[in-house]
Amino acid sequence: xxxxxxxxxxxxxxxxxxxxxxxxxxxxxxSYNMGWFRQAPGKEREFVAAIRxxxxxxxxxxxxKGRFTISRDNAKNTVYLQMNxxxxxxxxxxxxxxxxxxxxxxxxxxxxxxxxxxxTVSS
Length: 123
Description:
The protein is an all-beta fold. Helices cover about 0% and strands about 50% of the residues. The chain has no helices and 11 strands. Strands 2, 4, 5, 6, 9, 10 and 11 form a 7-stranded mixed β-sheet that branches. Strands 1-3-8-7 form a 4-stranded antiparallel β-sheet, with no helix packed on it. A hairpin with a 6-residue loop joins strand 4 and strand 5. The termini are far apart.
């Protein structure tokens, strides 16, 4: 079993930066692919970024490519999402997820989910 806890969300002005953290419990953290998803009120869950268990492959949604960076520190059982040049449309609850499937952008490939952390970007 894997438990995930997101943190680092908050209120930031457009153009600002935030770094989200996802702390995981469980001995098998390093064997999981990790993903970040987000969901705005009234909208469906949206893929943001993913990183392979080995850390050598990353995936990004077109909407965040070049602005967001996903990384992981397996020694600390933590995955990060560095968010730069934030835009109001980035406002959402951000969720961390863990899975082992090959389709990193698909929510149903992930088994474990965190509780979410709110990111609000003001214009």
